[in-house]
Amino acid sequence: MNLPPQLLAHDYVILGRQLERLGFATGTIESLDELRSSLRVATDQLKRLGFHKSEAAARRLIIFRRQLDELEGKLPRPLEPETIRELRGAVFAVFEVLNAETMEQHIAILDRSSVSELLRTTEHRLKHPVMKIIAQEAIKNLESEATRSALVMAWNLTYEYIRQWIYVDSIRRGAFNAALVKRVKKGATIYSALTEYEDMYDLGEHFVLTVGNEAVLADGKKLLPDRKYNELIQELAHRNNFAHPNAREASVVFVKGYVEGLINGFILDGYFVDTRLLS
User: Fold this and answer.
1) Candidate CATH numbers 2.40.10, 1.20.120, 1.10.10, 2.60.520; the one for domain 9-102
2) Helix, strand, coil proportions of the chain in percent (round to 5)?
3) Can you give the pTM of this predicted structure?
């Protein structure tokens, strides 16, 4: 599972340049290889940029591209005037559709400065694909100024890391399970030990953190020490403040601080670092 790739404004410039070049092709000054290159880039860019109607209108260009592909390796030579006229007509037909299609497409300007270098480097260091996706979503949300969403995704990343940290290690998982099965309701045990990671999905966030705080390791220390547990509960409360419908506003500065606090306080904290999760 991957997020859609980010596009650059330069990608649109490249498309325009190649279509313009094809529209003014003469067939005498361009080599076949140059025309093939322009056709390839233009048709590929239409697809990559999501101009599906224009891509459909470019079928004639694709045919030209295939015809020139058959001449690959041959010396450059002028194209027939009729061929050039057909090429120009096909390009201008694409221009007309593309002009209308661009009027329907909206573009969000991303602010890359909204994302700290710490978040970007942490995303690269994460080994688990799910955590990488969550981190990438937090980055994209910040870049597009969806600050409340970015805050929620930052918490999700931290919580997912803590869950993975508990489960990936047999000793930590064993301590967690020992505390989990002690949970009773009306005198009956209501929770079974975790046997696979997905069992975590049935447990609430506050509950998992609390059980982690109750779990005791062989040395008598808590799996989630009181200080870290209290900090996590506080950060969860912050997440809840912005995850539910209300008029709260989350500034970029506040969210960047929140994100960096989570990363430094938990994911990169020496107590939680695990090379199975982080490079």
Assistant:
1) 1.20.120
2) 65, 5, 30
3) 0.75
